Amino acid sequence: MFERLDQQLFLFINSLNSPFFDQVMHTLSGKLIWVPLYLAILVFLGIKYKRKFLIIIIFIILAATLADQSSVIVKNLVHRLRPCHEPSIMSIVHLVNGDCGGVYGFVSSHATNTFDVALLSLSFIKKRWYTISIILWASIICYSRVYLGVHYPGDVLCGAILGSFIGWGIYSLYVITDKRILINKPYFNQTPNYHPAP
Predict the structure, then answer these.
(1) How high is the pLDDT of residue 189?
(2) Cβ-proximal residues to 160 (8 Å cutoff; 6+ apart), any chain
(3) DSSP letters for 99-118
(4) With contact defined as beta carbons under 8 Å apart, do 171 and 122 qualify?
(5) How much is the pTM?
(6) What was the pLDDT predicted at 188?
(7) Is 109 within 8 Å of 159 (Cβ atoms)?
(8) Among 9, 80, 110, 192, which residue's beta carbon has the most beta carbons within 10 A?
(9) For the chain, which domains are there?
(10) Alpha-helical regions (H) of 16-52
(11) pLDDT value of residue 143
């Protein structure tokens, strides 16, 4: 029943297309276009956290690797065809530039990766305006994948949940690591020795 509803919702969203939004969604769904955003996030974190930034970079790389690889693993385990590869509906799926992607679509790598970036970065930045903006950004990327005909809504929803879990989990691991490092630094546990003048 879920798959049937998922398919119907997909067909509805995918049918709401126009030449203008075809190009908008295709552009938003690209990867290189968001490199300036990623660099801006890194610069902000570098300014805010200073010496801790090198440690944060390690956790960012770990999160990005986990998000990317976990979505691939799930795809290869579940084997759910993308809507543009599904024989029963592929003839009515609206594709942009004929780009369908790989055979399997559950879960969406775009959704997993963008929500990983969103949750991990907002956990570090902790600004309301940023939280709203980055969640909106990730949601639009997810919508674009359905619009473009390469994912069902369920693909992007589950990918978003997976990416959010990874982002939150890696941040939690960072917090634990950061506390242990602070506790183990000798100068945090020592009482300064004062020698009053005679």
Answers:
(1) 44
(2) 111, 112, 114, 115, 138, 139, 142
(3) ---SSB-SS-HHHHHHHHHH
(4) no
(5) 0.89
(6) 41
(7) yes
(8) 110
(9) 2-184 (1.20.144)
(10) 19-28, 35-49
(11) 98
> Cα dist. 81→86, 102, 196 in Å?
6, 9, 77
Strand partners for 81: 104
Contact assessment for residue 118 and residue 186, using Cβ atoms and an 8 Å cutoff: no
pLDDT tens, residue by residue, 173-182: 999 998 887 6
Dist CA 176 CA 12 (whole Å): 45
Residue type, 172: S
d(CA 122, CA 180): 22
| DSSP single-letter state for residue 81 | B
Cβ-Cβ contacts under 8 Å for 144 (sequence gap 6 or more): 25, 26, 28, 29, 110
The number of angstroms, rounded, from the C-alpha of 133 to the middle of its chain's C-alpha atoms is: 14
Whether residue 185 is predicted with pLDDT greater than 60 in this model: the reply is no
Decide: 150 and 83 in contact? Cβ < 8 Å: yes
